[in-house]
Amino acid sequence: MKGMHGIIFSYEKPTGLRELTDHRVHGSVPFAGDYRVVDFMLSNMVNAGVTDVGVIMHGKCQSMLDHLGTGKSWDLSRKNGGLTLLPAFAYAERRQSAGQFRGKMEALGCVKEYLEHIRQDHVVLADSDIVINIPLQDVLRDHLASGADLTAVCTAQLGDSADTYFKLDETGRIVDTVRDIHTPEGYRCLNIFILTKELLLRLVEDCMAHNQYSLRGGVLQRLGDQLHIHAWIWNGYAARIDTIQAYYERSMELLNPEIRGELFCPERPIFGKENDAPSSYVDPSGECVNTLMADGCDIQGAVKNSILFRGVQVEPGASVEGCILCKGTVVKKNAIVRNVITDKYVTIRENGTLMGHETYPLVIARGAEV
Amino acid sequence: MKGMHGIIFSYEKPTGLRELTDHRVHGSVPFAGDYRVVDFMLSNMVNAGVTDVGVIMHGKCQSMLDHLGTGKSWDLSRKNGGLTLLPAFAYAERRQSAGQFRGKMEALGCVKEYLEHIRQDHVVLADSDIVINIPLQDVLRDHLASGADLTAVCTAQLGDSADTYFKLDETGRIVDTVRDIHTPEGYRCLNIFILTKELLLRLVEDCMAHNQYSLRGGVLQRLGDQLHIHAWIWNGYAARIDTIQAYYERSMELLNPEIRGELFCPERPIFGKENDAPSSYVDPSGECVNTLMADGCDIQGAVKNSILFRGVQVEPGASVEGCILCKGTVVKKNAIVRNVITDKYVTIRENGTLMGHETYPLVIARGAEV
Amino acid sequence: MKKECVAMLLAGGQGSRLYVLTGDMAKPAVPFGGKFRIIDFPLSNCTNSGIDTVGVLTQYRPLELNSYIGNGQPWELDRMDGGVHILPPYQSATGATWFKGTANAIYQNIGFVDLYDPDYVAVLSGDHIYKMDYSDMLRRHKEAGAACTISVMEVPWSEASRFGIMNVDGEDNITEFAEKPKEPKSNLASMGIYIFTWQKLRQYLIEDEADPDSANDFGKNIIPKMLDAGERMVAYRFEGYWKDVGTLDSLWDANMDMLLPGSGLNLLDKSWPIYGRTPVCPPTFVGPKADVGNSAVAKGCTINGEVKNSVLSTETSVGKGAAVTYSVVMPGAVIEDGAQVSYAIIGEKCRIGRGAVVGGPPEAAADPEQWGITVLGPHTVVKPGEKVAPKTMLDKHHNEEVEA
Amino acid sequence: MKKECVAMLLAGGQGSRLYVLTGDMAKPAVPFGGKFRIIDFPLSNCTNSGIDTVGVLTQYRPLELNSYIGNGQPWELDRMDGGVHILPPYQSATGATWFKGTANAIYQNIGFVDLYDPDYVAVLSGDHIYKMDYSDMLRRHKEAGAACTISVMEVPWSEASRFGIMNVDGEDNITEFAEKPKEPKSNLASMGIYIFTWQKLRQYLIEDEADPDSANDFGKNIIPKMLDAGERMVAYRFEGYWKDVGTLDSLWDANMDMLLPGSGLNLLDKSWPIYGRTPVCPPTFVGPKADVGNSAVAKGCTINGEVKNSVLSTETSVGKGAAVTYSVVMPGAVIEDGAQVSYAIIGEKCRIGRGAVVGGPPEAAADPEQWGITVLGPHTVVKPGEKVAPKTMLDKHHNEEVEA
User: Fold this and answer.
1) What is the C-alpha separation between B212 and B198, in angstroms, rounded?
2) Could B80 and C76 be called an inter-chain contact, meaning their C-beta atoms sit closer than 8 Å?
3) What is the pLDDT of residue D403?
4) CATH of residue B319
5) Which terminus of chain C is more solvent-facing, meaning fewer CB atoms within 10 Å of its CB: N or C?
């Protein structure tokens, strides 16, 4: 057993995140005041001792590229191994799909040479857009103990009908994989998989040979009988950020100390990108309650039930409630903002009023002045 | 004057490099025993004090990405600035050109936001596929002194008719830019340009507004009357690596101490990627003459007039002459190789004979066993 | 390899006057302003001024400083050529030699400086809080063709006798240097920041070292000798915030200044960023019943009580009903429910038990002369309900009182 | 923060026996094998063995070592947590203390080791050339439940009396340790590489430090005391190449071994790479008239003469008609046209003038007893036509002869 290699899929998908994905893929959406969504999965891997991570890049990857940088923030800036960017679809002749991401197996097929050079025995595959703090070393240990070919992480918390669901037998083996079912039942797939490098290579070859693009269709369903696919059940916090509604709810949940304690447990720290912002400053006239606040904020107005990213300014007399304000947002004097999500560097004008609703928060696109 | 920012264009182009560009763009072709072509332009920039370099990525960029890594080898691994990868055509909606690189101005238009955040006053634009050791700080100094809007580096050494040529007036101002002329005359453009950030942004906007994709057509020709475009003439070594013939000739020239001295002048070192190869070993039975040899080679046979990259093995009884052997090439016992270019990890079988000709060298694709 | 200007940062002193806070730690590693450490200021000044080669001279426990500075990456001083280097004393062939004075520390590292063959050397102090563009001072030095340029600032005439005072002529050439003069002729105080032409300094260092009577100190020996020898020495007038935080009171003051609009020390100012190494921790949570005002708060805190006119460093927590006023709380300290902390410096990872009272306001002091800030060394535990009077210092290991 | 095993590398010694080559430089920074420095071997062994936290103990001129090791990136020891740290001595509150013996050096850095709370500590030497998997030795240590595991190798019985010899029982438990015994009972020689259970070692270090009669040395004090106390101590048998390069002769020998097929020291072996920091330079050029045989050649050389049975380091040059045989040429040395160098170590940046003759073969020596290798210190200049006899040593600064 020579450890585990990480592969993270970062790709453009049909999005319910509106303006937040105008300029980025799901994985690089800002979350929890000081992070991008991908930070969680990267940290999970690093905390499980993973030293080599390949990130399959697709679509609007500039923001992801800028965020990952050299990988230094996750101790993945290495001479050998470390972080590798894999622009799987960069080769024009492989763009049969006209730029669409058709499935993980196709993407892996495009970087087969990289897979062949993996130095570890096992590989963990995961999406970049799931917020979770999961002990992947435990998943690997149980994978080895179960003798399974493939272990898939899933949860008993049901999602919507578009999700993938597993049916398990009494030993925890996955006996059926379904999707688009009217009433969700069984265990919801969290798109985290562990298998050996060798099996991965075999599966990639087999899928390429059979025109299978997706992991669900080409492996879980097609080969479900031949492979021993085992479930690893995680009932802790796991948030997929795929709609604005989910983004808002999942963000606001973080004001609950228990959920925050679970996601930011000290034994498995979440590494974000380092920054040079100074401490935040709260003015004597400022009133800041029930709020998560990153560095470099300047709070002179009232802030309540909100999430403030780095460098947010709330000017005197302004009032912010139920908002998620991304990096560099400025709320000018006497503005009133309720249930609003602002992307980076948004300015809310003096005396302005912006009101969304908890169930339909307003989203303000990056750099806008409203 | 707050220094100079570098932009390097790395893109797929119609290639005369045959197997050498099967898996890579021109800029990441191995050259001079220990380098990739792009190392030269990166080093030129670093030696001129450039701390921030954006590399426009296009096409088969995996090899370039792997090579650039964190930028550490060029001291460009920085918290702020440093090396930035710019996948200009990653946005599906911008793929009107179906993946083709249609021109530098289009590419720059795709990364306009990056350009706006440039911290320096001046920008040097250059291709990734030119082998040159040029004092860019002198070009900048003369650019400032001349008061020109744009300075273009060119050479009196004529090339072929597909090159771009400048006609200069007596002050060194470029009065005409031509291409596809039957008999090359004037000064050949080396595709290195210096201008202010502000003018660059203006030109990008103007070209986008007028459906102009290329720098030659959209700027040099179209705006040649309105802008003061100045020539900076470089008559030193400058090799564009665009055909196998050029690749072979330009490589073999390096056995000439004068040319080598010019390209590897100690005052402007060329930085390559660091590696952990040990010293090369030459066996008592080995005979190695007039050869450029990188680290980690094991020479037990005869080598003459050749360029050996890192980790090349020449087994006893083998004979290598007039060859360029890329990283990890193994020439087995008693094999005879003449005028051959091997890509990485090629194996020449025992007793095999491979003969190219100086004017038409054989090229063996990566990983082949022949 | 040649550099125009190399900076030598005197971080040598164990913070003897800060002893209760530093213990074995070098003074410049003391936290400041919630997110930073004192040494972040001169290091960031170097980076922002374009000086990419810095030697840090230390002799007390370089370990913390070493691991804090590391490869210099937070300050962009992880350079292939140059960068930041910790320079502890070394044993030469002729035996061990500890740094004697500030000048001796540079003398012992002439070899380091020579590696970069600089035209100029900036000699900086590791325990000043200020934002300064050394490149501007260097321009002044070059334009004046000086052998030495000393950064000075105007102080109130009434306080001038507490400083090293520079007397200057009409062109700000230094004509005389007086250490704490009874009758100051000028109110230009030396800030202890020097730029020297390296070849000049090198020569004076060698001469000074050969002088057995010298204390090998810049202020006491090198500067007076250069003045006597008629070298061209000029003053560089600095305007802006500057404070020597070599005492507990001044450290507390500087933290409070940071909260004061108009003090000149505005950490939110982005034009001259201060860089630092920060621990990995989530954003700060300000609870539903929290009451925060005029305070600086770093990442990773949990605030459920009152925080007024205070600085909270990373990963501190303030419990329900607790109150922190006019205090500096260092990383990882825990103020439990109902505890009262005022006019205090709480060291790293202290724990103030429920309902304990630490420090107190000057108004409430019986004898205002005997009042002062309360300081708890790192890891000090104050038991629930315990009272720690104003001006008390508790030592980190044994929780015994140490007289200030 | 907890680590299973931390390595402490004793790089302290100024190479007194290598003095002519090292000058003020720490011995482990001496170049080896063309491309490497001696310290690359233990550091690379650590990396390849999965040990990511290394303390390098030094007291002589840490500057070169500091700038060579830097942030540890060449050895992948630039880690957020752990990594390589240079540990010079420091001045404690009670005054300056230089490392006394090898054990004292670790004693003084107990605080550093405790930071990582390791179960085990590997104590390594900075001047051995070998490739060894410490994780295999650690497995042996854990399986045996030992307090201390000592790496040993079989030496010829005839030479056993020159080594520290371990007497073992049938299960390779160490029963006795004899330093250079006249009548050795075993031929298992200690290689000076130890793995200790940290809590055990910690306790012995503290006891040893309290003993005023102790030399505070591992071999002389700690190991015998642990044996006496009946601690479980086991031998780990190492097979493969190992050499202590603490003398000029052994340094030359080890370089020659590298050229010898079957010596066990094969640098081209990729399964156990040695990492190092190398200067930026183009590939080596072997000229049309060059004659190179059985030699190792690093990058950046220009060879126009004969090079046989020699090691050329980076950026050396050998002129036309010059001959280098059975020699080790360190970085940047220039052998001008027609010069003859044989059986010599040529220090960094030496210049051997045209037609000069340095060293000579043993066959040609009048008195073979008086023959030896010739060593030139760094920056030595040999004038054109000058002869430097075998066994001569030229000092780097003054070009004076130093008797070996």
Assistant:
1) 19
2) yes
3) 45
4) 2.160.10.10
5) N
